[in-house]
Design goal:
Layout: E1 4-9, H1 12-20, E2 22-26, E3 32-36, E4 48-53, E5 59-63, H2 74-83, H3 102-127, H4 131-148, E6 156-157, H5 160-173, H6 175-194, H7 206-225, H8 233-252, H9 265-280, H10 287-290, H11 309-341, H12 347-362, E7 370-371, H13 373-381, H14 387-402, H15 405-408, H16 413-427, H17 432-436, H18 441-456, H19 459-479, E8 483-490, E9 498-508, H20 513-518, E10 529-539, H21 542-557, E11 561-565, H22 569-578, E12 585-586, H23 600-612, H24 620-629, H25 633-644
Parallel strand pairs: 9-10, 10-11, 11-12
Antiparallel strand pairs: 1-4, 2-3, 4-5, 6-7, 8-9
Helix pairs in contact: 3-4, 3-5, 3-13, 3-14, 4-12, 4-14, 5-6, 5-11, 6-11, 6-12, 7-16, 7-18, 7-19, 8-9, 8-16, 11-12, 11-13, 11-19, 18-19, 23-25
């Protein structure tokens, strides 16, 4: 085996750790002994620890002599110490990088809250409920997920994806049925999280993720463009100018050295534009022109719906749709934030947090929601990394509703629209246009389709369609990889009889059984014995089992005997589990012992038994070990007979 040697002239901490580490090694005779690294004498130079790594990556100390080797950096020394199971230095001795400041988290939360208010109000109009219901949903969703969620950077609130689904229910049965459906959707999401179904988000392919982000970017951008609807002449020009000013400030502020880095650029841009409008008296559209924000805190409220089968039948389809849409958008947003923050978080914990938040919304008279990709990206770009930013956002929205309505209603819509448009420019994957020409056609089709379906319908339909199309493309490509190579070999070395061996390569599943059957023609087979060798293939499903059974039946009808060989353990178990579904001979793979690890002391004991004529029962490994010791066949036979036929002990 190739051996890589690394030497580290250890620091006092590593040398001290190496002086107490114990290594247990097995020598050639199999006896185990303890090895203790030599202690370093006071004043003696630091020893050089040399480690050898074989191809399996297992380290072994091969020497402690001093030698001149290249000094490696501290990172390599730490990795080597970890590989050798040397205790790492105490946590108090390690340098720690400063975490995000509380001020940065608070300001990030305030920035997100300002961007959430107009969107929450707009989604209430889509769902057909009072504006205060959307603000309550934003505060409660943000509060619950900030406390219970796995990814602190994710911001949840009243989302447009869920509002669209609930709109027909509110129009036909009223808001009370909406609250009941939100609570039921929360329960479904919590159960999905408890069952750890969030892990299936890993099945969403990368083109589907890119299409999801691009589609939402288009949706968010379209919503901001709608803020210019109904404006004309001077009002339109003013709105466009303020929006452009906000976008310019967001891009310019991070480059100003005199601006503290703790202040998010979007927050400072919104404050600057809002101050400009108030000081100069510019007539422009504000949050107060969209809807009144003033209200009270949410109170406990049991949905006033009859507890009957008809009620459950009415709300269940909407609840399941919202649960699916909410979890998909939440988990995809979580993955996106995980990539930005370089921190992998638990999907099932996030599902449970979303479920708990919607349950609370249902029993506090709010419209529910899910994670919001736009606000989440604003949060992480503003420096939000802890739960403080999410809690600040929720409490800020609650304060706007109770006593801060006069302040938030004067914020210009143009400033908030400019903030969201900057976000659209940041999250849209502009490399998609060049990537489409380079990636496989199936992936390009998935990317374009998911983007379009997200814009036209909703996220859940787009993601499901993208996953299905990707799966069909993968199944088709895999079905083309099945191949059966035919060879004729003699049954024995000196035999004139031959048997046919078909070496099957590629996956055998529902998509490839047709090609598999076409390549095996029993009528053209001249040998009476046929072997299907699956060393390079794998049986995946029941369709493959039926195909194997059909092949065996066709060969039997032609007077042939079929044997399966080199099946993996799980494939063989699948065939055995099928029972009467298949009737083929399964040839078990032999076990080939590569080496026997034996102890000289035990061999000496066996030899003593042989010398005294006592009888012992030999294990297989003992027989192999004795045969290695007594290589002469006759001598080995005499020794074994003498040991096994002696008097019992």
């Amino acid at each position: 085996a190739a051996v890589m040697r690394a030497s580290v002239r250890s620091s006092p901490s590593i040398a001290g750790a190496a002086s107490v580490v114990q290594r247990r090694t097995r020598d050639a005779s199999g006896a185990r002994r303890a090895f203790r690294a030599p202690r370093r004498r006071p004043g003696a130079p630091s020893p050089t620890v040399r480690a050898a790594f074989d191809t399996s990556g297992t380290p072994a100390i091969v020497g402690g002599a001093r030698c001149h080797r290249r000094r490696v950096d501290a990172r390599a020394a730490h990795d080597l110490a970890a590989a050798m199971a040397i205790p790492a230095p105490d946590a108090s001795q390690r340098e720690t990088s400063p975490g995000p400041s509380v001020l940065t988290q608070v300001l990030a939360g305030i920035t997100v809250s300002l961007a959430m208010v107009p969107e929450s109000l707009a989604f209430t109009f889509v769902a057909g409920v009072s504006p205060i219901v959307g603000l309550h949903a934003a505060a409660l969703m943000g509060l619950c997920t900030a406390v219970l969620g796995a990814q602190p950077g994710v911001i949840s609130g009243a989302a447009g994806a869920t509002a669209v689904v609930f709109a027909p229910l509110v129009a036909s049965h009223g808001p009370e049925y909406l609250f009941a459906a939100v609570a039921l959707a929360g329960a479904i999401q919590a159960v999905a999280g408890a069952l750890r179904l969030g892990k299936f988000i890993r099945l969403v392919p990368q083109p589907c993720m890119i299409g999801f982000v691009n589609g939402l970017a288009i949706v968010i951008g379209s919503a901001q463009i709608n803020s210019f609807a109904g404006l004309a002449d001077a009002a339109l020009y003013t709105q466009v100018a303020l929006t452009a000013l906000t976008m310019a400030l967001i891009k310019l502020i991070p480059n100003l050295s005199f601006v503290p880095k703790q202040i998010p650029a979007p927050l400072l841009a919104i404050a600057s534009v809002g101050t400009l409008v108030q000081v100069t008296g510019i007539a422009t559209k504000t949050v107060g022109d969209v809807a009144a924000v003033a209200g009270s805190l949410p109170a406990f409220h049991i949905p006033k719906v009859p507890v009957t089968f008809e009620t459950w039948a009415t709300i269940f389809p909407f609840a399941t749709s919202v649960a699916a849409v909410g979890l998909i958008e939440t988990l995809l947003t979580q993955q996106l934030v995980d990539d930005v923050t370089e921190r992998r978080t638990s999907t099932h914990k996030e599902c449970i947090a979303q479920g708990a938040a919607n349950l609370v919304n249902g029993f506090f008279g709010a419209m529910g929601g899910c994670a919001m990709i736009g606000q989440s990206m604003i949060n992480v770009q503003a420096g939000g990394r802890t739960r403080v930013s999410g809690l600040t956002c929720a409490m800020a929205i609650a304060s706007y509703v109770t006593f801060g309505a006069g302040f938030i209603e004067r914020v210009p819509i143009a400033a908030l629209a400019g903030t969201m448009l900057c976000l659209v420019l940041d999250i849209f994957d502009w490399t998609s246009f060049a990537r489409i020409r380079k990636i496989p056609k199936t992936d390009a089709t998935v990317l374009v389709m998911v983007t379009g379906v997200t814009v036209v319908t909703n996220l859940a339909v787009a993601v499901f369609a993208g996953v299905v199309l990707s799966a069909l493309g993968y199944a088709y490509k895999s079905s083309q990889r099945i191949e059966a190579r035919r060879t004729s070999v003699p049954i024995k070395t000196d035999s004139i009889e031959h048997r046919t061996v078909y070496e099957i390569s590629g996956p055998l599943f529902f998509g490839s059984v047709g090609s598999f059957l076409e390549q095996l023609d029993p009528r053209m087979e001249g040998n009476d014995r046929v072997v299907l060798d699956f060393a390079s293939s794998k049986v995946w499903d029941s369709s493959a089992l039926v195909a194997i059974d059909d092949v065996a039946d066709k060969f039997r009808n032609c007077g042939k005997v079929v044997t399966l060989r080199h099946l993996s353990p799980d494939c063989a178990a699948l065939l055995r589990k099928a029972g009467d579904l298949v009737e083929v001979n399964l040839e078990e793979d032999p076990e080939y012992p590569v080496a026997a690890d034996y102890d000289d002391e035990e061999l000496e004991t066996l030899t003593d038994h042989a010398a005294h004529g006592t009888h012992v029962s030999l294990e297989d490994w003992e027989r192999s070990a004795l045969q290695r010791q007594y290589t002469t066949p006759a001598g080995f036979r005499v020794l074994v007979d003498k040991v096994e036929d002696g008097p019992a002990i």
